[in-house]
Amino acid sequence: MSGQMILVVEDEPKIALLLQDYLKKAGFKSKILEQGDIVADYVQKHSPDLILLDLMLPGLEGTEVCRAVRKFSNVPIIMLTAKVEEMDRIIGLEIGADDYICKPFSPREVIARVKAVLRRVVPELERNPRIHGPIRIDDELHQIMIHEQILSLTPIEYELLKTMISYPGKVFSRSELISKVQGYDFEGYERTIDSHIKNLRKKIAKFFPDQDIIRAVYGVGYKLVTPENFLNTDGA
Description:
- By secondary structure, the protein is α/β, with parallel strands linked by helices.
- The chain has two domains: about 5-120, Rossmann fold, CATH 3.40.50.2300; about 130-230, Winged helix-like DNA-binding domain superfamily/Winged helix DNA-binding domain (Arc Repressor Mutant, subunit A).
- It has helices at about 15-25, 40-45, 60-70, 85-95, 105-120, 155-165, 175-180, 195-205, and strands at about 5-10, 30-35, 50-55, 75-80, 100, 130, 135-140, 145, 150, 170-175, 215, 220-225.
- The chain has a five-stranded parallel beta sheet, sandwiched between helices. A four-stranded antiparallel beta sheet has the order 6-7-8-9, covered by helices on one side. A three-stranded antiparallel beta sheet has the order 10-12-11.
- The relative contact order is 0.10.
- Mean pLDDT is about 80; it is low at about 125 and about 230-235.
């Protein structure tokens, strides 16, 4: 992880400099931007490894910054928000954020989250592609393909789909999915896993328009039904 570039988008100088200091101690490089309307252009030109993105920004709000970046990049985004309403966090996740941290926060927690997200991005070596019917998982390239077409996935979407594909038919609780893809169990995050599943369903739907490949299991969580098993009508 040493030397990776973290873009800190935060208009409160004390918070931005504190994060930069902790990032430096953890071996990361960093760049601070204070306005939302210049972020997308910076990301296109400099390709940071991860973005710490405040929601309340001058120029352009964090949610709009996230939407703009997601039009051309799957760079991991962790939102920093003082908003306490769950809906605000859900909106952030639905538009493509990988994680969120509520203010006030511990800088050490931020660094832990950054490392956890980046671990999901760095491909594991010496792993062969796995094929499940029309679905192909390539850990080395960090890609999932359906019918030889690459899915455009955020890091957490990639890990979620890979986890469920690897265990077709297995019912995962929300807490299980969080633990597997986040690397930790975060209180208050369970229901927001639904936002990532919603995004995945949209991206997969064009390949299987008449089938629900990710099915909700009432009161439990989710399971994936592979295309070969779509004739099996059990489940939700």
